[in-house]
Structures are given as structure tokens and as C-alpha cells.
Amino acid sequence: MIISDIENSAQRLGPPSLELVNITKRFGTFTAVDKVSLKIPPGTFHALLGENGAGKSTLVKCIMGFHAADEGDIIVNQHSREIRSPYDAYKLRIGMVYQHFTLVPSMTAAENLVLSRSDTPAVINWKTEYARLDEFMRTAPFQVDLHTPAAQLAAGQKQKVEILKQLYLKSRLLILDEPTSVLTPVEADEVLGLLKQMVKEGNLSVLHITHKFKEVMAFADEITVLRRGKFAGRGAVKDLTPDDMATMMMGEQRTAKTVERASQSKGKAVIEVKGIRADRDNGLEAVRGVNLTVHAGEIVGIAGVSGNGQRELVEVLAGQREATAGEVVLHGEVYWGTRGEMFEHQIFSLPEEPLRNACVPQMSVAENLALRNFDRAPMTRAKWVLNRRAMRVAADQSIARFNIKTRSADTPIGDLSGGNVQRAVLARELSSGTAKALIVANPCFGLDFVAVDFIHSQILAARNRGVAVLLICEDLDELLELADRLVVISNGSFVFEGPAANADIKMLGQHMAGH
Predict the structure, then answer these.
(1) CA 147 from centroid of its chain's CA atoms
(2) What is the pTM of this model?
(3) Which structural domain range is residue 413 located in?
């Protein structure tokens, strides 16, 4: 195998230096990134911050070769580089850990690592490969079982394999896109702490995309902030406060928003989950006979690491997955999740991955916002003809109220960033003042703090109006802020239940991890 001079240089020098100079990327007439500059010296931990739609994802996709910048220069190790593909980035020892897992589920962790290499032979000598893997794991920052299929690994272990894969490929500048969203608090501190140690030792550089100021303050050396596609500021973390960062992100001083939690006695049972069992897409059981009651005027939070049955449970409650046993009862009546029953009981939901589970990507933002009531006045005339004007007026109101960043109400919703898809679905589900039950899964994933404050206020306001709220979330801080009662799900079963007011984070994390 012939190794280029670039590859030799990257291997010899360790973490590469990276500098972006006036990077600009346009999509038609829309400028997603406008003359952004950024500098990451070798052996530093750098955080990239910005509100949803600020251009962070587009910028790192230019670094990784998914997009070609229209203007500007990418300088690696003091040389201008043209990165046309992720393979070009790989040759420069730049790798990325994405928000969503890229592992092949049926393959073991070892097979996924070997498969990721560009020089994997057509016929693999597994004795040689395992010797090579064993040598790599002896110096790896954390350990995983290489012989377990990826599908059987817990979410935290999968994320560790994703990071190990980049280290195995000898990536020395890691781009991490919200890497702790699937980790327990203990796992998040462990993973970021171990990577930070590699940075301190001069073996790695990190570019960390996150919305969590707590992680920035604990692990980052420097930050760069984007706002509306433009450079908004940079600085050393030791010289900044979270309010300073928020001001850079939003152009205004951050003010904490406090929503009064109405004191009220427990209302009537609204949502009752009785012995529900449900399978994953592959036929294996995901939900194992769970029981739960949510009363009017309370928020019950379900905590758990991603992949422990939350998605399947939400889909059963939303009518998108058939339970294999048990039943769901709403207001004392068995509930099957039909559209008519949803209207009758005024139950609203935001499932996980809203673009896949709650939207039609090719339809416009306005049409998606109308999916709940398109066949009822004023969205329709005489039950047959859509009232496009009423649909557009309602859409414009929701776009303004929920600050949905879109070119127009006619833009296909699939063209929006993930955070703005989340806002659009939340606008549809939370705009009604008649809700009696609300089922929400990870409502603030990937959203900036202004959107988070707004969504939290909406959820608490619904609870204060007497709505029964079931909140499934992987962010313990969010659950502790919102929930009246907490339930922990692990391996498809409820393993803990208690008041949120006196919950212990360490103990909850241990339950989430299955200990």
C-alpha cells in the first residue's frame, strides 16, 4: 500500500492544526455560512456553539468534505487543503463522531472497527486483525467488548465504539456532534474526561459541537460562536461565563426564565399503561410489561439511556406501534391510538425522530403544521376542499410564535434543520389549548437555550392547566427541572419510581446504567 506524503506527515506530527479562513457556503440564494473563520491549535479542546440554524453543521460538513465551500480556505498543518470527501479528511487525520450511530448492528464491535478501515483486505486474517485490535485496546481511553454485536450494546457502549473507531483510524482531530446525548451523566463525564486527558497529553484535538454550557465550562479550552451563519465571537473558556456565551449566541443577555409550578392536588387518572409489552423492529422484546399512571395536572418523567425501550413505548402510545400485550387506557376507556380517539380524548404527542415519525418530509411546513386539523374548519370548506389561505395564516402564526427558521411556509419540512423540524412539530402539538394528555419524547434535543426555555414553559403551562404530561427524556437535568414524579426505564422495564423533588442524580444514573 502506498501512503501519501500528507498521510505520512499527519501520522508523524500527531494532532493536526486546523484553521478555517472566511469559509462561505451557499445553497442557492441562501447563505448558510458567511465568511466564518476558526482556529484549532494542536492539542486543544475547542467548543463550537450557536443557536439552531446558526450554521454549525454546515461548517463541519465543509471540514469533512460533505460540502465544498464556495469561498474561503481550509488550512491543515499550515498548508491549504482541498477536502472533497470524508476520505480526504481521513487522510489528514480528521474524523467525526455523528449524532446518530453509524455502526452495522449485526456486526460485532471488532468487525465494525475493521470494516471502517480503507485498507481492509478482501480476505480477512482474523488472527492478525484481533492481535492488532488487542494492541490498540491496550492504549485505548476506554474499553468495550469487541465480540458483542453492535445491536446488543447499550447506547453508551455504542457511542464509545464510535469514538474508538475514529481513534483506531488514527484520527487525531475529532469532531464530536452532541456526543453525550445518549450517555448517562456518569458516562458523559467519563467519556469527555478521558478525551480531555488525551488532549492534555498532546495526542488529540477535539472540536465539540454542543448546547450544554456545563460541558463547555468543564472540558473546553476555547470556544467559537456562530450566529445566523456568521462568526459571533470566540474566547478562552477561563475568561467567560455562560451568560457571556449566551450573549454571543443570541446577541442579547441571557435572562433565566422561571415558570411558576402551580400547587395542586393529584387529579384524576388520565393515562394508564397496563402491562404493555412491545417488540423492536427486529422482533426482539423492547418493552417488558410496564405499568404506569399519569394523573391530570402532573408531569411524569421517564429517564433512561437511549435504546432501552423508550422509543417503542412512545410509538405504542402514539398509535404507531402495536403492543404485543397489555393495554393503554385514557379517561377510563381502552385506547387504540386511532385518529378519531386522539381527537376525542385530546391527546397530543411528539415522538422521537419527528422527521421520520411525525412529519411528511416532502410536504411543506404549512401542510405539516395542518396535519392535526386539515379536515376540520377552518382548514377545510364543506369537509371536502382545503382552505389554503386559512392553512397559510395559521402556519405563519406558528412559525412566528415558535421561531421556526424556514425560508417560507411553503418550504418542504425535510429541508429544515433538525432543531427546526422539532420546533415545527411542537408548534403543531402544543398550539391547541384543549389538550388533556401530552406525550413528549426528548422535546429539546439539539435546541438552543432560548427554544428550551420556551418549550419548558409550554410544558409546565400545560401541566398547570390540568394536562397529564408524560415526558420521556434522556437529559436528567431537564427531567429534574420539569417532572413531578420520575420513573427510570432500563432494558425495557421500569426499575425505579419516586418524587423528582428529592431525587439523587448519581442513584438515578446507576439505575439508568442497569446497576
Answers:
(1) 28
(2) 0.68
(3) 361-431
